[in-house]
Specification:
- This protein is 33% helix and 23% strand.
- With 141 residues, the protein is of the alpha/beta class.
- It has a single domain, classed as Glutaredoxin (3-Layer(aba) Sandwich).
- Strands 3-2-1-5-6 form a five-stranded mixed β-sheet. The chain has a two-stranded antiparallel ribbon with strand order 4-7.
- A hairpin with a 5-residue loop joins strand 5 and strand 6.
- It is globular, with a radius of gyration of 14 Å.
Amino acid sequence: MDWLTTFHLASVVLDPYTNESSWILRTATRVLEQFRSSHARINFIVTADADDARAFLGPLADDYLVFCDPDRELVKAAGLNELPAFVFIRVDGAVAASAEGWNPTEWEHVADTIADVTAWTSLDIPGPNDPGAFRGSPALG
């Protein structure tokens, strides 16, 4: 909640112990970069401790704000069932939009919501190098 006092959060939630989350890393960074200068703080939420999060994200851990959620408290609070997920959390703590697994239409809806709330420009999802749609892994492990 401390991070929500000034800015909304545009978060990609990942489980570093599953293939599904690794398949979406390139797409996730492309989507998050669209909102880097908006009034939403772009970030990764990784369901692991700091060491495992850094090992999974590699150099991305130095380029992005990363929250660790090893007990999956945020995952539970946001009501997520599948990971990866793309979640937009407003400054009041409400989940304004979310998409689970890799469903390009749902991720685009989250991006459009972020753009509307922050008066920013959205982007087309899927992009030309994005993977085909797939279901996520169970969010609670």
